[in-house]
């Protein structure tokens, strides 16, 4: 594996709440290789979105970083001030698309106004140079007649066009890493397919790295090169995408794959994942998946298993003896 562009090591993060301390991320280890689309998959409540926001230092006031490091090209982002993150990383190096990105556009400003604001903040310069970058950004996401489009307001665009404009907004400053947090959740199937195609094409054309956060296994199969399966604040399996669907190893990964309805899957063979992600104010000891696992044994309740190599680019955190 090449040197990762993003390397999260032993990250611990909690939230202070009225009920107590919520352990959202518990010893997270994640490597994202440059030039790849890396999926972060898991059920709602596993800590996926928190992970993405933490990379950019987007913390609420009740956030507590308990340990670990987030290395971007070798620089520890957790050691940076908010001013340094804003000046040197957000927008220019790392950009983020949030859930339902089309609704993030301001309805009272034109597309040109909104793109220009991003460029003035992160890459100030001559108006003519910024205009050129706007057109290039819109053109890169296959939007026709970008000069005319700049004069339009969001309500004048279709849903699919608004999604592409949001990608363009995030790519205007030419970041090396794009974090996409459940960007297709609110989209219908046709717009979702367009969105995924644009991202895949961009990744090939400009060699951008994408961390794609989702709970949708079908989307993972369409877009990702490598996948990290997350459960209750920890990574339980790192695996190439095709290997995840052909030979998942961790019991949780197997359940996720078995719960997906594919073109050749009989409804009778679908598996329902019983139970739910534990409340992280009082999480179970040891492996946090053990209350839902058919293979749990005494040691699973004592300490969390570490990730170990089972094949090239494939690591699993499980105490099972036959990891296959």
Automatic annotation (TrEMBL):
Descriptive protein name: Nickel import system ATP-binding protein NikD
Cellular component aspect of the GO annotation: plasma membrane
Entry's Gene Ontology BP terms: peptide transport
Membrane-topology descriptor: Peripheral membrane protein
Subcellular location: Cell membrane
UniProt keyword list: ATP-binding, Cell membrane, Ion transport, Membrane, Nickel, Nickel transport, Nucleotide-binding, Translocase, Transport
GO molecular-function terms, A-Z: ABC-type nickel transporter activity; ATP binding; ATP hydrolysis activity
Entry's family note: Belongs to the ABC transporter superfamily.
């Amino acid at each position: 594996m090449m040197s990762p562009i993003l390397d999260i090591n032993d990250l611990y993060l909690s939230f202070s709440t009225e009920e107590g301390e919520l352990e959202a991320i518990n010893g997270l280890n994640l490597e994202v290789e440059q030039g790849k689309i890396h999926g972060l998959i898991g059920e709602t409540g596993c800590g996926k979105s928190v992970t993405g926001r933490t990379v950019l230092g987007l913390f609420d006031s009740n956030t507590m970083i308990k340990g670990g490091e987030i290395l971007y090209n070798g620089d520890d982002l957790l050691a940076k001030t908010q001013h340094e993150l804003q000046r040197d990383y957000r927008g220019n190096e790392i950009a983020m698309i949030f859930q339902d990105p089309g609704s993030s556009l301001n309805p009272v400003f034109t597309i040109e106004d909104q793109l220009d604001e991003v460029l003035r903040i992160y890459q100030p310069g001559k108006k003519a140079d910024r205009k050129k970058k706007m057109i290039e950004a819109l053109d890169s996401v296959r939007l026709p007649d970008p000069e005319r489009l700049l004069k339009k307001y969001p309500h004048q665009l279709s849903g699919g066009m608004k999604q592409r404009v949001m990608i363009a907004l995030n790519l205007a400053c030419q970041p090396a890493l794009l974090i996409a947090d459940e960007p297709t959740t609110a989209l219908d199937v046709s717009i979702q397919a367009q969105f995924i195609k644009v991202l895949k094409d961009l990744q090939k054309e400009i060699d951008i790295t994408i961390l794609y956060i989702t709970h949708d296994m079908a989307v993972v199969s369409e877009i990702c090169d490598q996948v990290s399966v997350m459960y209750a604040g920890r990574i339980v399996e790192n695996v190439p995408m095709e290997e995840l669907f052909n030979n998942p190893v961790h019991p949780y990964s197997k359940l996720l794959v078995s719960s997906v309805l594919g073109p050749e899957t009989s409804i009778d063979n679908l598996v329902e994942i019983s139970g739910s992600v534990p409340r992280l104010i009082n999480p179970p000891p040891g492996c946090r998946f053990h209350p839902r696992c058919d293979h749990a044994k005494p040691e699973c309740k004592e300490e969390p298993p570490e990730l170990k190599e089972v094949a090239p680019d494939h690591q699993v955190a499980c105490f099972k003896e036959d990891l296959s």
